[in-house]
Every structure is written in structure tokens, then in C-alpha cells.
């Protein structure tokens, strides 16, 4: 029998209902009675989801796009901002640059281990995949053309890790036809927290009729709102007590982000164009993005050490576009180099395991000069480097005629060199106990993970009639995953000299290959209505387990998602109303699952556990009610559940101990996600003005697959409002984000963490923004 449901405490704030949020939404439309339909029309949305530019309404694929205008209107600056307005995407987040994204219920809750499963959603920056385990690249969003989400498996065109969908961030490109420039400055204040500011600018400079340079720069400071409060820890087994007085600080979770992009476009001749580009960003964050409202209070946390992360990346790209006869040719190459240094308090670990360590004498394994037990307080120092190169060449027909096709070859190599060191400052630092002079190591994980991917892919579309078209796609691929290095206690025969890489206790490799297919049929009922049916398959690479247990296989295999979908694209009322949607069923076969069970191993293990199924629908609606009033309403519903019992290991199966029974809801999958916006323009004297409201709703979800200990994360509503005036080239805006000061539960930690932190969102924030375009 399952344990009673335990709800996460959500602090002192009262919850707001969906009805209340909708009331706030329609308030922006109620300023005056509009003349319905007067000169109203929706803008055309161009997407490149099929690796061809096309009207969103003509693409038989479930695509949602945040356009450049909507990004600017919604004041989107980073991951936490745009993810709020993508209802087909769910996520968990620990801190800036530390997040996992999911689509269509494909989530086992066991992702995020650096040596474990790759993500089920691929993330792209322009043409390069930047997918990283638990480390979503938190690119500052400015001068961005659009953010596209492609829901459902995209295995044929986008390959590995596009198992449940693909998210693409597409930058604005240089334009030789005209000069343009702009800047934006903003200041804000977090309610009960710190102030912040943003400085941004771009310039597009034609160099000739056939060349242009585009430069983009940004600098942002986000104010903190979590207080690190005073506390003590008592290590009962050793009798040692510590306090965190040296680390007490109000609003200690702040972030500074600065960066630039530069792209040069050169038309070599009338057929060929080359575009080299570079992007750089450095993000420095301090503190934590969690609180403990149950015992410390709202926005209160207790840390006993340094908490910071320095995340820096540079990306170089080269894109070549051309024509050979009637064929279009594209080469896209990219190199990404990312470094992340971090420090995390780990003192809770020694306190939580005090009984275990007392039994084994751990506390007194090391002694100070007086012969007393050493303080076991620990911290984790992280030093990570990510290197990724990708190369794709594709050839396509010109898009005319009844037969259209695209074919290409792809290669990528991703290296993740991670060095995590568990430090105990009061442990003696002599050679006998620490292989690093001056650094009191007690455990080290120093490994190099390499993932390679080679593929051939293609799609063919044929118009059977003027209304009916069919598309077949394929991808043949080879995958390779290797993991080499050392993990374990220091000072041992394996690790006599740091970094231990010369004498690894781990050196494994796995190779896989396969193919994936897509079939699609679309029917154009009229110029305004298109329907399609799709079967598609997505895959995620397998890999190796660090530990050999005799219980769990030394390697886990790739897993697959099979998607059955019917969708539609439609416009009505002379292009004033757009209504797109899809209904679907996904079958997840032999999905990978990460778990930690000390009875089996002290290390996280990954195994292929069974079957899961998602049934759901999604929709995206825009309505130009009048020339002055535009409304949007989008959402998704996902009923994602296990399709068979899950047993954590063969011993559990033999004993009949079910970890999660058939029908268990998959974790981190809110059944319902909704978002809506209303924007109304008017004149105030001689000044054009606008008022806007944006609302999002996220349903409750579970934080784990294990029914014996999981926690239900409650639903939440977020509401943003803005009021602005415009004159000529400039815009002045007042904005308020999360105006009801809702305390969202982004992630509730498992209950084997003594601190039980709850990762939450930013509180209410108020600000002013000024921008100008030339």
C-alpha cells in the first residue's frame, strides 16, 4: 500500500486560483469596448523547424514559436523567463545554468547525473546542438529572432536526444540591406530583496552591398532574495559543533551575466554566402535558489559554506549557404567551449550520516594535533569543462514541384571533463591523507566522458494531389559513449597522486547503432485549414555504469519513444484567429532510469526499467480581436504513466517489492500547463501606449517515481503586467513580474536530504525599462 500523500509546505503566501489569474488577464482588454475586427490581422510567423524556412501554418508539425516581437513584448531575458511561456515544456531548475527540460511527459525523474543518461529534449543554439546533462546553457535572450519548440520525437532531422522534442534558440543575422541599431536599459527591484539592472545593445552595420556585421552586447545583474540565516550543526558521534556565522547574509543569491555576439555575413557571389560568428558569455552566481519555509521561514536558507558558480562559454560557428544548379547546399560547423567552476556546502552530509559514520569510526578516522576527532564538515568543489564540435552538411531540392527532399550527414563529439572534489577543511593535509598539497580531499570524481554521434539522414515529400502530401524520413546513426577516470577515496593505492587519471579505476566504452523513421501525411482542406497525421520515433543514446554491482548491468541501452499524432493548423476570420493543435499518444520503451540505493552501490546507477505511456493534447491560439487588442491562449495536457510495474533490481522483483506500480504518474509532468497574454494599445494624448498582462499556470506534479517517498509539488500561477508609452523610436515601460508574489515549487528535494530544500521562483519584481531603435 502506498504511503499517504505528503504535500510540500509553500510558505506564508496564499495561493491564487486560475480564475483570479484569468481575471487579471482580461483586465487589460476591458479598458474600453473595442470595435471587434477593425483592421485586425495576425503577423505571419516564419519557422525553420524542417530545416527550410516556411510559414508556421504550412508546416505539418507541432511547432510553437516565440517571435522576436513576443520576446520583446514579454521582456524575456533568460531561461526562467521563456520557459514560463512554453506550455509544451516542463522543467526542473536548481540554479542559473542548472536545469533539465522535458516534453510530452517523457520524464523518469532520474536525469541529471553527469555520468548518466543524456536529456530527452535536445537544445540548439542556431545550428549547433548544445544539449548538456543538467546544464542547460542559460543564454541571455536579446536580439533573438525566435525560440522554437518542436514537440514530439524529432529523431530524423535532429537525431539523438531529440527523443521527446527539440528546443531551438535562433539569433538575428546580419543584414546588408540597411543599418539598424538599438539599446535597452532597465532597472528593477525584487520585493523584499535586492535591486537589479540590465544594459543591452545591438548594431547591424552594412559594410557593402554584399556584407554586413552584427554586434550584440549585454550586461545584467539580478538581485538576490534568499536569506542565509544563522544556524548550528551538531555532529553527535564526535561531539563537534559548528555554526555558520561567517556566512550569514541577506539576499545572497545574486547573478551577474555579461556577454557579446558578433556575426559577419558575406555574399561571395549571387549563389554563395558565408557567415562566421562568435558568441561569448560569463555568468557568475552566488548563493542558492532554494528555501525552507517549513522550519526556517519564507525565503530562508541555511548554508555553512561558500555557494557559487562561475559559468563561462565561447562558441564559434561557420555557416555556408549556396546553390549548385537547382539544389540548395548548407554547411554548418560549430565549436563550443564551456567552463564551470563551483563550490557547494556539503555539511548536511556528515550530519545526516552521523549514525553510519559513528558505527564505522569515520568521525575519528582523522585526528587533529591534540588527538581529537577532526571536524567532518565537507564542501564540494567542481571544475567542469565542456567541449562540443558539430558538423552538418545537407543538400535539398529547391522546394518547387511535387517532389521535395532533403538529405545530409552529421557528426558531433562532446567531451565533458569533470573534476569534483569532496573537501573536509579540518582533516590533516599531509600526504598520508591528501594527494593534493593543501587541499584536504576525502573523495574525488575525476573523469572524462566522451559522446560521439555519426549519422546520415533525409526526408522526402511528395504531393499525391494538390491537397494531399506524404513525407517519409529516416536517419541511420552510430553512437559511442566512453567514461574514463577515477572515483573514490583519496590516498588509496588507486589514487596515490592526484588527479588519479594515470591509474583509473574506470575505463569503459559502449557502441550502438540503429535507425529511426518518420511518416507524415498532410491534407490541405483550404488555404486556411491543414490537418496532418504523424508517426515518428525518437531515441536517446545508452552508456556505461560507473560501478559493477552484479545486480545492475554494466551498461544501459538506448531507449526509444514512439509517437502517434494527429494535428491541425487553421486560421479564421480573415487571418484574425489562429488555432493550432495536436492530440497524441507516446510509448516509451525500455526507458533509462537513474537511482541511488546504498544496498546495491554508493554510486548512482542507470538501468533500462520498462514501459511508460503518454496520452495528451496541446493547442496554440492567437486572436487579433481588433487593431488594438491581441489575445493568446496556449496549453498542453499530458497523462503520463507507467505501463508496467517497476522493481528496483532483481532482488526486489524476486521479493515482490514494487518501487512503482503500473499506472504510477511519471515525475515532473504537470498534467496541465496553460499560458495566456493580452495586449491592448491606445493613445494617451499624443503618445501611443499599451497595457499587457501575461499569465501562466503549472499543474501539480510529483518529484520522483518511487511511490514510497515521493512528494507532490503543488500547482502555481504566475502573472506579469506591463504598461508602456512610445514616441517615434523610443519606448518607456513600467513592468511588474509575478505580481501576486506566488511561491512556486520548481523542485522539492527528496526526503533523504536533511535540509529538505524547496527550489523556488523569483518573488514579485517591479521595474522600469527604456529602449530606443534606430
Quick recap:
By secondary structure, the protein is mainly beta.
Key words describing this protein structure:
774 residues; mainly beta; 22-stranded antiparallel barrel; five-stranded mixed beta sheet; 7 helices; 5% helix
Rg result: 27 Å
What is the chains' assembly state? Answer: single chain
- The number of E-state strands comes to 44
Query: Approximately what portion of the residues adopt beta-strand conformation?
Result: over 45%
CATH architecture: Beta Barrel
Largest sheet: 22 strands, antiparallel, barrel
CATH fold name, please? Maltoporin, Chain A
Q: Decide which structural class fits the backbone.
A: mainly beta
Q: Determine the N-to-C terminus distance.
A: 66 Å
Assigned CATH superfamily: TonB-dependent receptor, beta-barrel domain
Could you explain the architecture of this structure?
By secondary structure, the chain is mainly beta. It is built from seven helices and 44 strands. It has a 22-stranded antiparallel β-barrel. Strands 3-8-9-6-7 form a five-stranded mixed beta sheet. Strand 11 (195-208) and strand 12 (211-222) form a beta hairpin. The termini are far apart. Mean pLDDT is 87; it is low at 1-37, 356-361 and 429-435.
